[in-house]
Amino acid sequence: MHQLPADIVTIDTLHLGRSGTIACYLIRGSVPILVDPGPAVCLPALTAALATVGLTLADIGAVLLTHIHLDHAGAIGSLLLANPQLVVYVHQRGAPHLIDPSKLLRSATRIYGDAMATLWGDFLAVPAAQMIQLAGGELLTIGDQQFAVIDAPGHAIHHLMYVRQSDRVVFVGDTAGIRMPGYTYVRPATPPPDIDLEAWDATLATLRTHQPAALCLTHFGAVFDVENHLAAVQRNNWAWAHLIRGWIDAGVADADQIALLRAAATAEMGEEATPDGIAAYQKGASVEMSWQGLTRYWQRKIAPPA
Ligand SMILES: [Zn+2]
Q1: How far is the CA of 192 from the centre of ligand 1 (A)?
Q2: Distance in Å, CA 154 to ligand 1 centroid
Q3: Separation of 21 CA from ligand 1 center, angstroms?
Q4: Three-state SS for 133?
Q5: pLDDT in tens, 227-280
Q6: In the chain, what are the domain boundaries?
Q7: How many Å lie between the centroid of ligand 1 and the Cα of residue 124?
Q8: pTM of the model
Q9: Mean predicted confidence (pLDDT) in 19-32
Q10: Per-position b or e across 196-210, b if 16+ CB within 10 A of its CB
Q11: What is the pLDDT of residues 156-172, one digit of tens each?
């Protein structure tokens, strides 16, 4: 496969007015389906993109959520206000945080502070009755579409992937890292709080057994050189983790670790490390946040919570 089938539309949610940052996917089956609608601030762009293919929010029958991070699922409560018939598919570990988003919003506020509203917009609660909770292993039938559901811990403990059965196009969320349009470099996406690299490796192994024909990344777009890409995800996740572990063990100060990681990230990009390239990857997943997530991963190994 070299391009997505015509019935899968990559929607650019134009986050903060910038193209190529957060992708939502529209699957134009007998029941229109959205995969990861994005944050609420992007609803106008999502609505406009649907209009270009003759659809409105009210036409959408189902939303598949890969996970509940704000950049993927923030709009879901607002979507339900516009379309109360919508059925939301979500990991059973994520569902409680959609029913009561207060904990999710508290931890996001610790990261984003005053910028929360500007970055993401509203995150409204989702009634339990609107959701179908998944654990992975299910085979979903939505209209004329079928999807195998993969439990995908690693980036988040409540992450799922969806394999379309007709052509093995896989909606991977952030499990296949960050690769911006027009680039080949694969950057780790390792934000706090639940990075688990061993679980991530196992998730990638499971994904390979489904023999993906294409990977649909949220940040950003479809990838067709699947084997190379997945190898790079695994290699680069561990490369960053081992760098950070070395700095922790050597007592390097946090600010210096972040500066070193930023330099390492730029070096890894090779000739793609142009000013545009560096900026594109930084908006997909900031080095600082990925440093935080990997640091937390090691802290839990060094001193496991009692
Ligand atoms: Zn993301």
Answers
A1: 12
A2: 13
A3: 9
A4: strand
A5: 999 999 999 999 999 999 999 999 999 999 999 999 999 999 999 999 999 999
A6: 8-230
A7: 19
A8: 0.97
A9: 97
A10: bbebbeebbeebeee
A11: 999 999 999 999 999 99
What is the 249 CA–ligand 1 centroid distance (Å)?
29
CA of 97 to the centre of ligand 1 (A): 17
Do the Cβ atoms of 20 and 280 come closer than 8 Å?
yes
Report helix, strand or coil for 190.
coil
CA of 226 to the centre of ligand 1 (A): 19
The model's pLDDT over 90-123, given as tens digits with 9 standing for 90+, comes to 999 999 999 999 998 998 888 888 889 899 999 9
Select from 232, 201, 223, 226 the least CA-distant residue to 212.
Answer: 226
41 Cα: distance to centroid of ligand 1 (angstroms): 15
The answer as to CATH 3.60.15.10 being correct for domain 8-230 is yes
Query: Ligand 1 centre from 173 Cα, in Å?
Result: 7
How far does the centroid of ligand 1 lie from the alpha carbon of residue 250, in Å? 31
Where would I find the H helices in 23-171?
43-52, 70-73, 76-82, 95-99, 102-112, 116-120
Q: Which two tokens stand for residue 59?
A: 């036409």
What are residue 189's phi and psi, to 5 degrees? -120, 90
Three-state SS for 93?
Answer: coil
For 90, the 3-state DSSP assignment is strand
Q: Ligand 1 centroid vs 251 CA: distance in angstroms?
A: 30
What is the 219 CA–ligand 1 centroid distance (Å)? 7
How many residues are present in the chain?
Answer: 306
